[in-house]
Amino acid sequence: MLQLKTAGFKALENLRSSGYFPAGFHNMDELNLKADEAVARFLDDRFAVSQDLGGFFGLLELLDTAIRTSDNERMDKPNLPESERLELVQALDRQNVMMQLYHRYIDTLLPFINEVAEHTKREVRVLELASGSGGLAFALGETAQKNNLHVRITASDIVPAFIEEGNRTAAKKKLPVSFRLINAFDMNELEMSEFDIVVMAQSLHHFTPGQLAVIIAQSGNKGVTAFIGIDGYRSMLLAGGVPLIASLQGIESFTLDGLTSARKFYSELELDIIAEIATGRRGHTVECSWPLSVLTVRF
Asked: Helix 268-279 and helix 28-53: axis angle, to 10°?
């Protein structure tokens, strides 16, 4: 439920046959607009197809429309004090540890890390964008140390408090992890081929389709091997389950953020469209690894 693939595939077929998908872009601003417009058009067409199909299909579409939101999570509010922002991402880190999600993310990443290591015969350089407090980066660093993997992890965010706290923790734990202030929408400061793999985990839904397309395109422009995006699988179960689990920590704003996030998760076909607009081709995969959606774009 909420993936709506029957109506979605029909809507996507209609868009392709009509020649709607725009080929190429001149700059990132244009890409941003194209991806936003493509996903909006897809959702409108899917709604129309669902109503034509009628019955259960129409009801599911109405349910998805009612649940869907473009509201920002509290942790993304621009005027939120950094101390409160840090408290919220640390709560998310505790939740991920409790649910053993970092192990799932690492299981997804390791085949790519091993592939790059075998091909290059050198240290593998991983960049995590929108890393928050760095829970995944630390878990990956610990895995690398235990398994003697030659991996260097750079966690990044635009919140200075995350960077300062992350570097202190990395130094204390003596892990191959460093934190760096990077704007995911502007990677001009990165050197060409500075990183092998770009990762985003649990944050795809924090970005609009256009913003996510820009991030994917800029990753490819910097000579990486792959962009790997991991997020929640859009479903009724997670729409109710995510805020319920978040409520266990007794932080009202974190619970509300959990509800907002679950309402914003992308469906697999939306991620498919975003990746195609960003790359101009269909050389990517979107897979369900319950309760996760995994977008893999190879360059």
From this structure: 150
Helix (H) or strand (E) holding 256: helix 252-264
CATH number at residue 234: 3.40.50.150
Question: Does residue 167 lie within any of the structural domains?
Answer: yes
- pLDDT by residue for the chain (299 residues), tens only, comes to 799 999 999 999 998 888 878 778 999 999 999 999 999 999 999 999 999 999 999 999 999 999 999 999 999 998 999 899 999 999 999 999 999 999 999 999 999 999 999 999 999 999 999 999 999 999 999 999 999 999 999 999 999 999 999 999 999 999 999 999 999 998 988 999 999 999 999 999 999 999 999 999 999 999 999 999 999 999 999 999 999 999 999 999 999 999 999 999 999 999 999 999 999 998 899 999 999 999 999 99
- Three-state DSSP at 166 gives helix
- What is the pTM for the complete model shown? 0.96
Exposure b/e, 165-202, CB count within 10 A at least 16 = b? bbbebbeeeebbbbbbebebeebeebeeeebbbbbbbb
**Cα(17)–Cα(14) distance, integer angstroms:** 5
Residue with the two structure tokens 């995911």: 184
Burial of 96 (0-12, 13-18, 19+ CB in 10 A): buried
Segments forming the whole domain that contains residue 138: 74-298
Asked, for residue 125, whether it belongs to a domain, the answer is yes
